Amino acid sequence: MAVYDRIKGVSRRDFFRVAGTYGLSSTMLAAGAFGGAMTAGNLAAAAESTYTRRFSKEAKHTLKFGASGFNPQNLLIERAGALEFARDLEARTDGEIRVEFIGNNQLCGQLSCVEKTQQGITDIYAASTQNSAGGAPYLNVLDYAYMFPGRASQYHFLYSPESQRILRDPYEKRHGLKFLFSHCELRGIQLGLSWQDKPTVTKLEQLFGTKNRVTGTQLGRIAMEALNLNPVPVAWEETLDGLKQGLIDGAETWASAVAYANMSPVVSQSVDLKFFCGTEHTAMSASVFDSLGGDLQDAVLESAYWAQTHVQAANEAALVKTVGFSDPQLPNTIFAENNVRNAFLADDQIKMAEEMCSPEFQPQLWEQWRDRLNKWAGGIDTYQEIYNIAREVDKDMLPENVEPRRWWKG
What we know:
By secondary structure, this protein is of the alpha/beta class. Helix content is 43%, strand content 15%. It has helices at 12-22, 24-32, 40-54, 82-92, 113-118, 129-132, 151-159, 162-175, 218-226, 236-245, 255-260, 286-291, 294-323, 334-337, 347-357, 363-376, 382-390, and strands at residues 6-7, 10-11, 61-66, 97-102, 124-128, 177-182, 185-186, 188-192, 212-214, 231-233, 250-253, 267-271, 277-278, 280-285, 341-343. A 6-stranded mixed beta sheet has the order 10-9-11-8-12-15. Strands 4-3-5-14-6 form a 5-stranded mixed beta sheet. The termini are far apart. Its main location: periplasm.
């Protein structure tokens, strides 16, 4: 998918013509607020209105938001909340904070957004924690295999005040970044076109010996090696070609990532291995946050909370109604239109995978990284503490039913 080929009915040329008049951020925010198809005229009117509102007074702080490959179109597929956060923060602060949203890999990509924020080139970024783990290794703390039994447990942990102590504070102390909110899915193996004519995967052993793309997460590699999935580092931007050309059998990622990145035409089966986190998070520079006044800091946290609740509900709906990651699969979804079959493995197969690779059953595989993460977190047992919190909710709980909490208020 070219960057702006079609944003809900507007051509690339028309989009950039409007953006040239009212600015990229105002145009992106206006496009993201549309519920249906738009025309170039509608977009121009909305962008003008958005621009007028945003620039009605001088901002005290202008924050640059590097949002990897996201735009208003694909943020309606994977509901990562980036535009909603930016829009709410501007409104909540009555324009005292202005957010310049720059997506589509124009400022940074999945692997580099974290480093650009650490370097002060951007103030806020959005990318997966797994791809960001190369620049901020403490994010590996989310990637112990089978630590989270389901999406509900992921949201429950992010809302928990304990996430402040276990995830957010060490992340900020070590990497100078403030973890704001995240979308939640669990990773599986997305098989390429070479699996199109093969039966739908029902047994874990059918995946043994396959060659699969791995992200920047060091812990993800441990799980994949233990499961005989032959992890191969491939940049996110090159994964589509790898699947298309058969250079790899599959890629470890999650369902809505396949859909938003236009990988569905080259994926034949989405195997729900759910073996570790797929978390498309938004974070900001801690020094920038600290430079804001108390009221504006409160606003950032409240907007992050609001975005988290939005993501929790919207992404669960989009998985079923937009992506097609359900059984039965709804027609006219991205997966249905591209003949992507969902392979939801039975509990005994998930248990087998867990026993092959998780710290609970194979502690020796994780010792080095577990010790490292524990030291970075001040000596706590990071795996066990997150594992316990993740099991405070039933493993079959619907993710949209998790109670939202303001994690920073204890």
